């Protein structure tokens, strides 16, 4: 990651700046991470679902002519696509696969290394089998080792064993990185969510303001891709980030998306301010 990370400002304190950014645009590109952003984090990865408010707000934004919506997820594209409806664009495996206009582009090196990822995942199934609750998610282009339900004392052993299997089978062709209670195994290519967002943005009409909302380390490159001209919003507590703004939770994300679909669009369309249009603020100001 390049650039300086600092603690993002609470979004409700920065609304005048957000309004100013929207005033200079005629279209929105809204890129959304999935887990921890649209869907609350849960112990079982297969059980993750967007909140009803987020599902409805995304569908509503996706139906607007002046908005392009994209899901940009670490999950496999086929997986995340089944979990949230509406957007016209889906990026899976941290941007290594991108579906637009009903066709899917896959990073060529990632495609070549899928067999090695598969071999690593099946080997880890055996190697990590004795560790209670270790779970392997084989996403074809990348693999995830889940440690959320693993006893704390066993996590260092998982990290060591995973690295050793990846080194032995993948050598320099694969890397291991961290996420939220996960180890991500992927091809060592200089391509991530930020590159996918830049690619999506490059096909949007001029005067499109890009917005990216995410909660995890792989979202940082996407915040960098949209800032400073666009709006990066981190979901979570007061951690340093490349995003300028933050909200607390997926519930706040829904409120923000609803605001963008009402007041936000009216700023784009007719320069009406949210107070003139009577729309609610995206995040209820907190008492401090
Ligand atoms: O980029 P994202 O869409 O946020 O995907 C990142 C990873 O999300 C999933 O794991 C995370 O969510 C799980 C369900 O809430 C949770 O159990 C896990 O601890 C989190 O790390 C997903 O399973 C991974 O494949 C994604 O890479």
Notes on the structure:
The chain has 288 residues and is α/β, with parallel strands linked by helices. It has two domains: 9-107 and 191-277, 3-Layer(aba) Sandwich (Rossmann fold); 110-187, 2-Layer Sandwich (Alpha-Beta Plaits), CATH 3.30.70.1020. It contains ten helices and 13 strands. It has helices spanning 15-23, 52-62, 77-83, 108-112, 114-127, 155-170, 193-202, 220-226, 250-270, 274-277, and strands at residues 9-10, 27-32, 67-72, 89-92, 97-100, 103-106, 135-138, 143-146, 174-179, 182-187, 208-214, 231-235, 245-247. A nine-stranded mixed β-sheet has the order 1-13-12-11-2-3-4-5-6, with helices on both faces. A four-stranded antiparallel β-sheet has the order 7-8-10-9, with helices on one face. α2 (52-62) packs parallel to α9 (250-270), α5 (114-127) packs antiparallel against α6 and α7 (193-202) runs parallel beside α8 (220-226). The longest helix is centred in the C-terminal third of the chain and has 21 residues, at 250-270. The chain is globular, with a radius of gyration of 19 Å. The two termini are 32 Å apart. The ligand O=P(O)(O)OC[C@H]1O[C@H](O[C@H]2O[C@H](CO)[C@@H](O)[C@H](O)[C@H]2O)[C@H](O)[C@@H](O)[C@@H]1O binds at residues 33-36, 41-43, 45, 48, 73-75, 137, 139, 144, 146, 148, 179-182, 184, 216, 218.
């Amino acid at each position: 990651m390049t650039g300086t990370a600092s603690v993002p400002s609470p979004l409700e304190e920065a609304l005048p700046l957000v309004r100013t950014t929207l005033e200079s645009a005629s279209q929105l590109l809204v890129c959304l991470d999935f887990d921890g952003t649209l869907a609350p984090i849960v112990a079982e990865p297969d059980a993750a679902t967007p909140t009803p408010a987020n599902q409805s707000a995304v569908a509503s934004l996706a139906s607007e002519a002046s908005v392009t919506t994209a899901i940009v997820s670490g999950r496999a594209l086929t997986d995340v696509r089944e979990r949230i409806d509406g957007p016209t664009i889906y990026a899976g495996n941290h941007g290594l696969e991108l579906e637009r206009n009903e066709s899917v582009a896959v990073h060529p090196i990632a495609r070549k290394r899928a067999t090695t990822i598969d071999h690593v995942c099946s080997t880890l199934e055996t190697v990590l089998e004795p560790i209670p609750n270790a779970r392997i998610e084989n996403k074809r282009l990348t693999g995830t080792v889940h440690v959320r339900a693993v006893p704390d004392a066993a996590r260092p052993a998982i990290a060591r064993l995973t690295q050793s299997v990846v080194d032995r089978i993948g050598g320099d062709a694969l890397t291991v990185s961290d996420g939220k209670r996960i180890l991500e195994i992927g091809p060592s290519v200089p391509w991530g969510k930020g590159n996918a967002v830049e690619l999506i943005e490059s096909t949007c009409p001029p005067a499109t303001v890009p917005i990216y909302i995410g909660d995890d380390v792989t979202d940082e490159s996407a915040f960098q891709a949209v800032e400073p001209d666009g709006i990066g919003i981190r979901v979570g507590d007061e951690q340093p980030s490349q995003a300028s703004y933050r909200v607390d939770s997926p519930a706040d994300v829904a409120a923000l998306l609803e605001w963008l679909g009402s007041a936000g669009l009216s700023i784009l369309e007719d320069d009406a301010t949210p107070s003139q249009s009577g729309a609610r603020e995206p995040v209820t100001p907190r008492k401090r």
